[in-house]
Structures are given as C-alpha cells and as structure tokens.
Amino acid sequence: MTGKYLFPADYMADPSVKVFGDRLYIYPSHDVDVAFTENDNGDCYNMRDYHVLSTDNVLEGEIVDHGCVLDIDQVEWANRQMWDCDCSEKNGKYYLYFPAKDYNDVFHIGVAVADKPEGPFIPMPAPMRGSYSIDICVLADGDKRYIYFGGIWGGQLQRYRDNLAIDNPHLPKEDEPALGPKVALLADDMLQFAEAPREIVILDENGEPMKHGDPRRFFEATWVHKYNGKYYLSWSTGDYHTICYGVGDSPYGPFTIKGEILKPMIGWTTHHSIVEYKGKWYLFYHDSQPSGGKSWLRSLKVAELHYDENGNIIPVDDGSYDNLKTYY
Ligand code: FUB
Fold first, then answer.
1. 140 alpha carbon to ligand 1 midpoint, in Å?
2. Which end of the chain is less packed: N or C, by CB atoms within 10 Å?
C-alpha cells in the first residue's frame, strides 16, 4: 500500500506513537514556517509547541487534535527548537520527554508531566541532569522504562564523548566506528536518568561496529520496539535519507543491521515510529510533499508494516519516492 496522509490540517513531523488503553496517541513535532534557510544546524526547524493527536482507527477513523499541550513559553530553560518528543506512562502518570535548545543554544532533554495521555503537560523547571542532544524514544519493557536519544550534525551528538562535552566537536573518520544513539534506564520517578547513558553499538553483517562511512549508519531518529521477544532498533540515516533497522537481544544492544524500512522521502529529513495497534503493525513517518518540498513543513503519514516469517521487516512501499536522485 502507499502511505496515507494522517493529518492534512497542519504541518507536523517526527511522529512518536504510543498505545495507552484502547486508544492510539501521536506525539509529533509541530512545524512552523520560518525565515531561516536550510543549514547543517537545522535552524529551519524552529518549532515552539507540541500538540497531541489520537484515534481509535488508524487508517479510517477520525484523527482528534487535542490542541497545544506544551508551549515553549512554559519551559523556563528552553529558548528554541522543540524537536522530536516521546511520551511514556508509569503508575497512571504520563511523561513527555522533549529536546530543546537552552539560552546557550545547547540541546537538553526536558520532562513534562500529565494525568492523561492527551495532556496538558506541566514541565519540570530544569532539563534532565546530564542530558544532551535530540530525538527521544522511550521503550516500556515490563516495569522498566528506557530512554533513547541522540542525533548528529544539528542534533549536536558530535559535541560529546562518554557523556562529556568535548573541546573539538567532530565526527569519526569514514573508517572509524560511527557514533551511536544513547540509551539509559529511567529512574523510578521518571524524571532523571537512573544510570549514565550508554552508547548503542550497531553491528554490520560481519559483526563489526558499523563505520561512519557506511551510508546505513545512525544519524538521528532512534525508535525501539519489540517483536517476538526481540528488540528492534530503527533510525534515520540523515544525509542518506533512509530508515534502517537492526535487531538485538537486549534494550542496550548491540543491534545487528537487517536492512532498510523506508527509502528517501520528499524533503531532507525522514523520521518514523513503529507500533502495533489492534493486531496490525504500522509505520508512522513524514514527508514534505504537501508543502511543495519545504523540508521544514512536513506532513504526517502512515502505512501498514509487515514482517516475513523470519521476523524481518518488509520494506514499506510508500509509492512517492522521488528524491533518491537528488541525494545519492
Ligand atoms: O524535527 C526536527 C528534526 O528533524 C528532528 O529532531 C529530526 O529527527 C528531523 O526529523
């Protein structure tokens, strides 16, 4: 099937999707039109608030917009760029994790708390201690909650090694292991890391850590889901514009590359989540076709996702790829 536009009424992107109770909730970024030109810092992604969407029927039902659930003006420490968020539930409370730049233009991760999945969310006065970079995913695994984050280039991950800011931000050389996303167990109160974030290793087919020069290497947009007892890590390759995935036996990895889920979409970014709802699996993602290709004005999409008998994800045929030629 081809991808379906989920919410044509507004420009939204980076869908993190969760099922709470019998309803499906979408936590997207809320794109805005801006005066910035596109650059490697991602200045054109200048979002200022979050909406929550929900539905009880992904492909045919009404998509309800619950309105603005958190605005940057409510967040004392945040100055600009509220990027990809995610929500997790524990003991009847809902926690929204979101990256934003502080007044020194450094990304950190904030937490906001609500009594309902559709908010409104009340932000904590300070970001999570020791947090940095972007693109949040929270995996609920039994009674544990794991937070994944990270993104290179505008996501600032190249500014850190071993969770410490370095003096000379840089990416690995082409033949060196790529930077990986980070993962940490969340504390019982869900407001801080329970441990120092660990680097996730993605292995290639030879069992070697994937090199920075490999076009399938991690760039941003980590998502983790479970299928048949295995952990699936998927990510955007950024400047190669695909979504790839790997499989592992632990939420901490390592994850062995399995293949590509989605080819390049219209617009520079690609970003997704994978969720099971009412017995079917879905890929949520975005493209920039409705805005005429403006990378900073993206539209949410969804397509059904299938696995083969060996648990491999069958690549989604969105039916609208056209920028392969531009970027490869
Ligand atoms: O939406 C801003 C950024 O663009 C996200 O954080 C990235 O994943 C990319 O989609």
1. 22
2. C
Contact status, residue 272 vs residue 290, Cβ threshold 8 Å: no
pLDDT in tens, the chain (328 residues): 579 999 999 999 999 999 999 999 999 999 999 876 788 889 999 999 999 999 999 999 999 999 999 999 999 999 999 999 999 999 999 999 999 999 999 999 999 999 999 999 999 999 999 999 999 999 999 999 999 999 999 999 999 999 999 999 999 999 999 999 999 999 999 999 999 999 999 999 999 999 999 999 999 999 999 999 999 999 999 999 999 999 999 999 999 999 999 999 999 999 999 999 999 999 999 999 999 999 999 999 999 999 999 999 999 988 776 544 444 3
What lines the ligand 1 site, CB under 6 Å? 13-14, 29, 42, 45, 83-84, 134-135, 151, 220-221, 269, 271
CA atoms within 13 A on the CB side of 196: 5
User: Is the whole-model pTM more than 0.90?
Assistant: yes
Cβ atoms of residues 145 and 186 within 8 Å: yes
Active site residues: 14, 220
Closest residue to atom 1 of ligand 1, CA basis: 83
Show the domains of the chain with their CATH numbers: 4-327 (2.115.10.20)
